[in-house]
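Supplementary Text 2. Reproducibility record for the structural model of the 588-residue chain.

All settings were left at their defaults, and a single model was retained for analysis rather than an ensemble. We include the record here because the model underlies the residue-level annotations in Supplementary Table 4.
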Amino acid sequence: MSAFRRSKLALLTGLLSTVLTQALFVAPAAADVENGNLPGGTSISVGITNPAEGALYVPGSVPVSGTASIGEGQPVADTTIVYVIDVSGSTQNPGGCGGNQNPTRDPVSNSILDCEIAAGKALNQQAIDAGTVDQVGVVFFDSGASIQDSNPAQAGTQGLVGPADDADGANGRDVEHVMSLAGFGGNTNFEAAVQQACSLIQQSTNTNNIVAFLSDGVATTGGSALDDLPCGPTGATFFTFAIGSGSSCTDTGGGRGSLQQIAEATGGTCTVVANVGSLPDVVPGIIASQLTRLTMTVDSGAPVDISGSANPSLPVEGPASVTFQTTLNNLQPGNHQVCVTATGTDGGGEGSVTDCHNFVVADISLTPEQAVNELGTPGQTHSVTATVAAGSDGGVAGVPVSFNITSGPNAGQAGAANTDANGETQFTYPATQGLAGLGTDQIEACFTDSQGAKDCDTATKQWVDTTPPAAACSPTTNPSGTNVPSAGNNPKSGQNPDGFYVLTVSDAVDPNPTVTIADSGSSATFGPYPAGTKVKLIQAPGATPDVKPGAGDIDYQITLKGDALLTGTDSSGNVSAPLSCNVPPPPK
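Retained model, structure tokens:
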């Protein structure tokens, strides 16, 4: 049989698995594994490794990985199996297996019926080996159906016996001997077969009841096989097998019910066995535990099948463990939950176990995004606030945030702190003073998530100088450097009758601002001069403005038509308002 067919059949037939099992095996798995048991007692577990509980991620992709396992347990004899065997006339056709399983009834070897009997015996042997089946029985059907007497040594029809019973000590195991008494019959009546199978199930003392229903055709007579399903009040799971080219899981036989419908009405499955010769290998698989499916949900959304990510591939028979790995894409900030469900089957039916992890997707913002401040106050600082938030779910506490000034006059300054209960943390840094402090700082705040990815935001702080310098002219000494002439009482004498001034200028940022002298009576200007320059101002309305070297302690002698207008200029281009430095004109 091909690997593909074996895989498919293993998946379908495994739904009856481990009637027979109760947990003996739990594969090594990730921390925080969720453990459970299937209806028949088989252990099943699933554990999410990543994301870890409470993990933090930046927006984008989040990997999901973990393990799942299924066990093989100690036998618990609490299961009944009814073998339903099609003995219609078409079963005399070649089947390619079994030899002559019913020599007392016909001389034909390797017929479809021989394959069915061989498959039934193989399943019975599997039940004995597993130790979980304590009652078995047989139903034959063609145009009608009948429960077979599995213990002729007792009066009446003994429908259910132990799988290994040999009451008369002859002819081998009673139930297998009964199977060998099958002979070819008439048409195919699914309704009668279901009715007799259900009647036999009502004799069961177990809660786990399985019907292995084998047919090489579709219903050709009788009513609807679905009318008697499920087999109340004692239920059973039907696992049907469509054998050879003359059968089908889906053909309803003119409304009499398909093998698929019979199985689905009881929670079972239908398996197509196109290669009749493989039937004895396929049917025993109904009592093997299987891990069949992995599904994932995010934030209580619709389940997504992630079985394809399992390694080794699903389904797998127990005991076994698989790993899984997939990715959640385009996750936006918020509190999220991912759940992975492992589903398996055993003889009690299908069951599952789920592990869920909560995690956070957050991003970072830095405020104020932009700020402009006037430089020039010693001790100046600037503060920014970083907020790590899970969208509308609010701030995330305890996240380490790093701050760095990546460029600008204060480049290289850095800090780090954890977010508070509101998801906020602050970074404050001192401003460099002087001309070196002018410019725009690029401030970056970052956090690193659980997989090493960074999320950052930036803000800018511009340090400017828009304040003009302060300029002044003060009376100073005469060329000898020893006498400061005083102003007279007559206002016409001006600020300084002799016109000797020292020019001063200061700026909060620029340590070397300059001063310029403009003539109020002409367009002439003189300078720029550094602070501390000493000048002799002469007002001569009829003269041509000019500047000459001064004598002695005086740097320059400046002749003006009008008054001197003094302005200060700093390196940022800020110019102070004109300040008059008056001297009287010479007497007429």
